[in-house]
Please model this.
Amino acid sequence: MSSQLARRVVSKRQFSTSRVVSHQERTILQKLFKIPLDAGAIGAVLATTWLGGQIFTEASPKKQKPQTALTTAGATKKDLVILGSGWGSASMLKSLDTSLYNVTVVSPRNYFLFTPLLPSAPTGTIEPKSIVEPIRAIAKRTPGEVTFMEADATDIDVTKSTVTVKQASTEISGVSKQDSGSSLTTDSFTKDLKYDYLVVGVGAQPTTFGIPGVAEHACFLKELPDSYQVKRKMLDCIEKAALYPKGSEERKRLLSFVVVGGGPTGVEFAGELQDYIDEDLHRWMPEIAEDVQVTLVEALPNVLNAFSKKLWSYAHQVFEETNIHLALSTAVKNVTPTTVFAQSKLADGTTKDLEIPYGMLVWATGNAPRDFTKLMFKKIAEQNTARRGLLVDENLKVNGTENVFAIGDCAFTGHPPTGQVAHQEGDYVSEYLKQKAALDDLNHELSKASNSDESSKVQTRIDSLKSQIKPFNYAHMGALSYVGAEKAVADLVWGKFSSTSTGGTFTYLIWRASYIAMCISARQKALVAFDWLKITIFGRDTSKE
Ligand SMILES: Cc1cc2nc3c(=O)[nH]c(=O)nc-3n(C[C@H](O)[C@H](O)[C@H](O)COP(=O)(O)OP(=O)(O)OC[C@H]3O[C@@H](n4cnc5c(N)ncnc54)[C@H](O)[C@@H]3O)c2cc1C
Model:
């Protein structure tokens, strides 16, 4: 009896002890979970409030100052013409005090395109419209009124300071010139614009290196309409291949997707393509997904050559794991409507000819100057030797001119042709022209000075302001590239002398966070974040339209 009682007491004690422990554990666990949950909830509320505030501010811009003949100091207000609406020109416009000049922006594209996420558009990871921002919206948020003309700059007279513009609308990649995007190009509106300052930010076009068949048969990935073209081509190949029996040569060819160029654009697109095949196509058409082969062709022995060495092998490893075939040290020689003819350099120094049948070919090998840039090479004596971009001085002023600046991919500064460089150059010219406007006002004040004392005071201010004008100095912040399978590589720069090279899933989160931060508007940030959330829930959209 007593032993039974003792057992019951013990068991009750054990029970009550175990209840106390589990309660304590639960409390500790709850507390532990609560900290990140609370922090996450507070973070989400703060981020949403901040984003909401930004979107509201952007949607309701302040009243702008109208364009006028004179500045507030009474000097003649100068005409500033900006060519282009890309990274260089849009960044410049965004940071410019547009009330200091009568500003006109000329571009065949009435929007800014956030190119870093363009490789995500054809596969439906990102909606194409999420990565554009109307140039008029950017202009509307600046202090002074801006005129926008949807037109191409077609000619320039640097002695008369005029630029000829002709009505035009976005072209696909500038190589094929297939699609003007406008139904009204036949009446060809043309006008000569007079400028006091001209900023040339016309970018570059994809280069084909003159390889036969590339311009005719390849798709490019440079402009927004290119992404629609690539998507359509990819889905055409998939749907057509489904009509052929498994194992047929034609089905194999249609499902061979070849990407040429192992730089960030080619690598990111190949990674996105394989993600789409593995995560989406596999769900809907598994028998087709199994037969798709993505091949990345690169003339050098590695992909992502601008990144640090250890990231080359990491990218190769991810590609191997995800079944992307790498054709390295392989140069394309000729392209027909169905086959890429290439030559590979083997380790023993010999070469091997390759034939790669393809359904879709995407060409991402770098830049060549646009027609307008080449025209400037020809028309300005100091530019006659230029090949890759306009030659500029330390203030980004075009050699051989007094009042023309070049920014971004159309300028040759020794820096890589990236959005990061173009953005900093745009900001620099904006600041430079702000100082120039202040100098103009001071010179006007000097001309009105009534005595030598007043003159010397103004002259001192002029000299001081002139000494503040610094040459352009590029600050490299690092480089990022998505490699597929939710992995990215990054060369991150901390301060002047230290840097980190990293690759993996955490880097992928850094990649995403950086791209959100780099978006040009709060609206763009929100749309990109929604797109990523949307594909996590619903998957990518595989419909053609
Ligand atoms: C797919 C892709 C991904 C990229 N990813 C990155 C990245 O992750 N990070 C990075 O730093 N860089 C990236 N880049 C490079 C970056 O986009 C370019 O370096 C950058 O766009 C250059 O800016 P830009 O202003 O010189 O030219 P663009 O941005 O190309 O803009 C040129 C503008 O000029 C207009 N234009 C063309 N001809 C005329 C004319 N005759 N008259 C008037 N206007 C004209 C065009 O319509 C366009 O608006 C990427 C590029 C591509 C294609």
User: Anything to note?
Assistant: The longest strand covers residues 146-157. Residues 83-89, 106-109, 115-116, 118-119, 152-153, 201-203, 221-222, 264-265, 370, 372, 408-410, 417-420, 422 surround flavin-adenine dinucleotide (CB under 6 Å). The chain has two domains: 79-207+367-468, 214-365+477-538. The chain has 14 helices and 24 strands.
